[in-house]
Amino acid sequence: MSKFILAIDQGTTSTRCIVFDRDGLPITSDQKEHRQIYPQPGWVEHDPMEIWSNTMEVTRGALHKANLSPQDITCIGITNQRETTLLWNRLTGEPYSNAIVWQDTRTASICAQLAQEGGQDRFRPKVGLPLATYFSGPKISWLLDHNPEIQRDIRKGEVLFGNMDTWLIWNLTGGKHGGIHVTDVTNASRSMMMNLETLSWDWEILGLLQIPEEILPAIKSSSEVYGYVKMDKFEAPISGILGDQQAALFGQTCFQPGEAKNTYGTGCFMLLNTGTNIIHSNNGLLTTLGYKIGNSPAVYCLEGSIAITGALVQWLRDNLKIITKSSDIEELAAGVDDNGGVYFVPAFSGLFAPYWRSDARGIIIGLTRYANDAHLARAALESTAYQTREVVEAMQTDSGIQLTSLKVDGGMVVNNLLMQFQADILNVPVVKPTITETTALGAAYSAGLACGVWKSSDELKSNWQPDKTWQPQMFQEERDRLFAHWRKAVTRTFDWVDE
Questions:
Q1: pLDDT tens, 67-115?
Q2: Do 253 and 463 touch, CB atoms closer than 8 A?
Q3: How far, CA to CA in Å, does 485 sit from each of 135, 257, 456?
Q4: Pairing between strand 299-306 and 268-275?
Q5: CB 365 within 8 A of CB 343
Q6: Strand duo 4-10 + 14-20: pairing
Q7: What does R_g of the chain's alpha carbons equal in angstroms?
Q8: Half-sphere exposure of 137 toward its Cβ, with a 13 Å CA cutoff?
Q9: Strand duo 406-409 + 260-264: pairing
Q10: Fewest beta carbons within 10 Å, which of 20, 81, 143, 333?
């Protein structure tokens, strides 16, 4: 008898498979990194075939580790890096190019051209998003403009678009032999093409972007049976889809308006549940779908998106080589008592919330002969906390809700120095749950709800338990001084890119 829920978490740097039991506890997992491809400055790509291969490898690996068979799986949930954009041929199953990653800035000229009439917020009333290189729509336009083969195959009805959720589901359900072409409302809401009220593709925006609707996937809820896996003797349906940050919100059981979570991964993403109300931001936040369970009304969120947090630690490891592995950064940073006056603003892909400045680039500022590698490591960690505070302040202004604590998850929450500094700079407790794999857990929850594993969100709420809480310990004067210098540093990143 099948009794487990399998979650595929396709992230920016790796793909993971985690199997959960009916108590929401992880029982086995496997993970594999994929290449980060940088063809030129500002460009970031992934090989979709590598990601597909890794997905199958980690799925088989996780089952093997726990001596499980595909028949032991009740249902499957998918969560994914959002906005990363791919076009492929439905007859051959072959991508036309590498996927353009959400961090990529090559669409800056497309966004600037669209902003000439109506400004950066031209589409915001419909889609909740500013014109920015972040989102999928302009990436599709760029691919259509730069590959005549795609234009030819569109006329033959052979081209499909998808973010990574759509790509994986299409392959899992048969690929070129009848694969299902779907996405959910959370991923669609990150395309800059889905109307927040109708939850359907917006024909006017599609026209302006010159994107034919027939290449787009069908938009579904976040929790329903989409189709069945047609490989490895699986009998389970795919029944949950959530973009990674919405999945973390769901896994943290932030089901009530006013509840918020912050995920510390490659980037950093804070979501605030606003219920069934669409709240448009006046302070640089995004309005996005939180989730939609079956036929229930859609739940919306305000989101603050930070492009570079954990990726900055990887940069210190891979580019500067001042650490051997990512976990080394805490010990190095703890070797000094403070940042030594050094601030690191990692605007490698411009600045996301609350600034939305694609012209910004990264800086290290405040350097003196006193500064060393430990100060640089500490400044890198502190940058994550400062950026999070900027998002919190914008969120409180937009929503009128005062944050009293912050639920956190993601790979960086194991860093005690960072979490303590986060509590200090926010002046609120920071709380880590017992199960920190909340992104995969959210995907499992959405899949399980559709298949009757859990009957309601109340059952899921009872699973959430706190593991550790960091209390603020910093004096207000010091908090204000540090944050004022951070904001001063941020202004120095502006207007670096001329075009």
A1: 999 889 999 999 999 999 999 999 999 999 999 999 898 998 899 899 9
A2: yes
A3: 31, 33, 47
A4: antiparallel
A5: yes
A6: antiparallel
A7: 22
A8: 30
A9: parallel
A10: 143
